[in-house]
Amino acid sequence: MSTTTAKKYILSRRLDDYFTGVNSALKFTGLFFKEVFKRPFHLREVINQSFEIGLKSLPLISLTGFIVGIVFTKQSRPSLEDFGATSWLPSLIGIAIVKALGPLVTALICAGKVGSGIGAELGSMKVTEQIDAMEVSAINPYKYLVVTRVLATTITIPVLALYCSFVALYGSYLNVHAEETSSLISFYQSAFKTISFLDIFTSVTKSIVFGFTIGIVGTYKGFNATQGTRGVGRAANQAVVLAMFLIFIEEVLIVQVANWFRFF
Amino acid sequence: MKELHNIIHKEETVISITGLHKSFGDLHVLKGVDFNLFKGENVAVLGKSGTGKSVLIKIIVGLLKRDEGEVIVLGQHVDQLVGKELDALRLRIGFSFQNSALYDSMNVHQNLAFPLTMNIKTMSKAEVDYAVDEVLDSVGLANKSKQMPSDLSGGQRKRIGIARTLILKPEIMLYDEPTSGLDPITSAEIIDLINEVQQKYNTSSVIITHDLTCAKNTANRIAMLHKGRFLKIGTFDEVFGTENEQVQGFFNYNFIQ
If you count Cβ atoms within 10 Å of the first and of the last residue's Cβ in chain B, which end, N or C, has fewer? Predict the structure, then answer.
């Protein structure tokens, strides 16, 4: 048996817990930048994780990208037809998909699929003491589990986002082709005509930030899972919800910053 | 069950703990624990659930930080060690977890090879394979190397968990509830294994348990933890020969072989 004494809170229990949580998440993120440049680099594990994330997400990304391309084209066509501007369709679709939808759709799908997977995997390892087992074997679990997974999501998600954009554009092309015969090459040329280097750069930067967010949130929630199997479920759930929330905030911020650059 | 025949070097203390305190928020778990483990000795720490037995060995291996007191393991203050120094100490300590803590995503061979390949980069694949086969043979599971942890029984998982710590040839073994959740026959096998490990690897061990059969058959001394303090430390007969109400209460609820 143990004794208890009443604990005093600085603000209130909820606020104290909130700020403690924010502080711990920031420290967790800061530790990534400290550890990522240190040896050992566990490159094989980074490659394994990238392969797992990429390969497992590919079917879903393909299907979603394809559907997004078709649906967005179908929805946009009537409005452009009103102005007799259907020839602008490839450019409009190109801008929408490459600049916004490709990275965002990929990030949201990966937040659901990859983020929850990482949260659940690490959460399960935490509650079954596998992470402690690594630590007592003189293996740095942060380095082996967190850094490798965050690197994998940061590398893989931009690649998946580019792939998603191409698949979405292909879906869009099929819809355009069904209405008015055009070649695939001329469709892609028209789609990319209005896209600048800054647009591509912003899109890739966004995907890198989204990938990092999904990795760090998933690993943070998993690494801090408590209370057995219930905690594992909660870690997976929170990893998805928080990652999606942060992705939308980051989307707004990055678009705003990119628009400032456009004026220079 | 095989008897324990170990040589204790009382002149050499491998773990020395004085005035150890540990709290979790409002919960004061350890309240001034004093404890010594001599080289070659096995000590069983007994006590009810929630008395801080596991906390004690987690502090010894540096998984938890102490609030107050002094913890010296193999001549080093654990709380003053960080990074590579702490890792170097941990390589000399084996920790067998209550639920074995085997890596789910790896098979038995990979579980055992993992600490080796991560810590000793110079070992060839053949050397790693040989070490894994040798330690698997030591725990009597030479034919299980390709199986996944989920395919093993509770007793086999415990054995593999112990094998994973032995592969690094530790000087101190910390067993967290080695017989919990096992049937009496498998428990007896694990007890034999603990004694065999002591004989073969000449380890000093702390065995956290609430199983008196395990404590009686594996330990040279018993330490009875109650309400964050040791009530009594001594041989089995010394501890359970006292008329202390708490000790007798604990004794009467257990089946002794």
Answer: C
